[in-house]
Write a structure and sequence with these properties.
single chain, Double Stranded RNA Binding Domain, 2 domains, six-stranded mixed beta sheet
Length: 212
């Protein structure tokens, strides 16, 4: 069995490569006969596919709407952003502070921008207002007339402005996020509101990506 594999691998190497396959793959002659022939077949296919993929125009930097790109999804001419606390037009307490905390964390974690405390030290400013926080009953306990599952919805308007040129990257764009929660749980509305503001922060940071 070993001799047949050795003869086949050497004949395959001479036909396809023109040199002993053991020396081509830096394997000793005895080790080459232990390698299944399917290994070399898949290796050749994989190598050819990888070479064609790397040489294709889609791997090169260019217009990301037409090709693949390895460039950053965010604007490279912006380094810093100032994020003041959003104006709150609702009666829900602390929602603007929770959104500010989540938004600053998401910008630092998922974008190349650095959040700075003062506007005069920033390239851009990201500000907005929370216009509405509404709550609807999804499921109600009939015997006690008590809600079992509710849905929270938060609506905010966001603007992202370049402090150097005055250009608006995001112009008073509306963001509306909803999240449901079990009203009977101890965390209840507080936990749902925390989850809601984090989802809103993720959506805002996603909107800061450079449009394709």
């Amino acid at each position: 069995m070993k001799c047949s594999l050795l003869q086949f691998s050497r004949s395959l190497a001479y036909r396809q490569i023109g040199s002993p396959i053991s020396s081509y793959f830096f394997l000793p002659p005895r080790a080459s006969c232990l390698v299944p022939r399917a290994f070399f077949h898949h290796l050749l296919i994989y190598s050819a596919t990888l070479l064609l993929f790397c040489l294709s125009p889609g791997c090169q930097n260019g217009d990301p709407s037409h090709t693949y790109t390895t460039s950053s999804l965010y604007r490279t001419d912006i380094k810093t952003v100032h994020v003041p606390i959003f104006e709150s037009q609702t009666f829900t307490r602390q929602v603007e502070f929770e959104l500010h905390r989540c938004l600053c964390q998401r910008i630092e974690l998922h974008s190349p921008f650095k959040v700075v405390a003062k506007a005069d030290q920033a390239d851009t400013i990201l500000y907005g207002r929370i216009s509405k926080v509404s709550e609807d009953v999804l499921n109600q306990q009939r015997q006690l007339d008590r809600p079992m599952e509710n849905e929270l919805t938060i609506t905010a308007y966001v603007t992202w402005k370049d402090l150097r040129s005055g250009d608006l990257f995001i112009d008073n764009k509306e963001f509306r996020i909803s999240s449901d929660y079990a009203a009977l749980l101890a965390a209840g509305k507080t936990g749902a509101l925390r989850d809601l503001t984090d989802k809103l922060a993720v959506r805002i940071v996603d909107a800061m990506e450079e449009p394709w």
